[in-house]
Amino acid sequence: MNPESILKEIQLLPPNAQEEVADFVAFLRSKFSGICQPRKGKKKSILDSKFVGMWADREDMKDSVKWVRDLREKEWERKRD
To answer: What are the extents of the domains in the chain?
Structure first.
């Protein structure tokens, strides 16, 4: 069903039913407001996010591969016990 045919069907309804349709449309708009609305403004780079660089001063995070490896080894040792 296309928008024009939907509009024609609504116009054939009695006034109180048209009001119900309007209420239902308002309900659906509020329910899906975050989904249907296009984003406004320019996309931000992830590099502008607050969390980027939050661990920059941590010495144990300088080599992230080693940090993850050590963390996994500790967890594996704990599970063996």
So the answer is: 3-38+46-80
